[in-house]
Amino acid sequence: MAWIAQLGQGRGGFYSYDWLENLVGCAIHSSDRILREWQDIEVGDEIRLAPQVGLVVALVEHERSLVLRGGIPMGRRAAQYDFTWAFTLHEEPDETTRLLVRERYVYTRAWARLIVEATEVLSFVMSQKMLRGIRDRAERTVATMSGTSGAEPGSRSDEATEAPRQRPRPTLLNQRARSI
């Protein structure tokens, strides 16, 4: 949960395409290490998506789940939808951990659907990269702690695969849902 706890602009970043987020002024810098000062989050804290845009921590179950809530305002107008972004860790019987990520939108204006759905492809691509970024960082952390290198030199894995039994390996799943 340490990688998820430090999500946010001005914190650990989003482990995604920083260069793309920075093209639109988000000032994102994804961390490659767990930093203690970003681990303590509480309900009511703000997690920024960009310098002027944040979500509020709605739920924290340490080492299990994090739910962020809010919406992105449009200029001086309040957000036209309510948004939740949930991260939940599930221990699997094979000693791996599955990360479930869920985005949910509730539209406060009928036309808000046009804005949200127009950005869903980009959101999907960014979410997939974020999940791979969290997985890779978590695997490196486990490998470092267990004294193994994690992967063979020159190998690359973009998909979660079966884990060797001698060390736990995080498995990721991105599940998207919308509510109207």
Folded structure, characterized:
It is built from 4 helices and 6 strands; from the N terminus they run H-H-E-E-E-E-E-H-H-E. It has 180 residues and is α+β, with helices and mostly antiparallel strands. It has one domain (2-148, 166-174). It has a 6-stranded mixed β-sheet. The longest helix has 27 residues, at 120-146. It is globular, with a radius of gyration of 17 Å. The chain starts with a helix and ends in a 6-residue tail after the last strand.
The radius of gyration computed from the alpha-carbon positions, rounded to a whole number of angstroms, is 17 Å
- Cα-to-Cα separation, first versus last residue: 30 Å
Beta strands, count: 6
* Fraction of residues in helix: 10-25%
Q: Could you name the ranges where pLDDT drops below 50 across 5 or more consecutive residues?
A: 150-180
Task: Tell me the major beta sheet.
Answer: 6 strands, mixed
What percentage of amino acids are in beta strands?
25-35%
The quaternary structure here is single chain
Output the number of helix runs. 4
SSE sequence, one letter per element: HHEEEEEHHE
Overall, the morphology is globular
Task: State the secondary-structure class.
Answer: alpha+beta
- Mean pLDDT over the full residue set: 79
Query: Order of strands across the biggest sheet?
Result: 1-2-3-4-5-6
Number of domains: 1
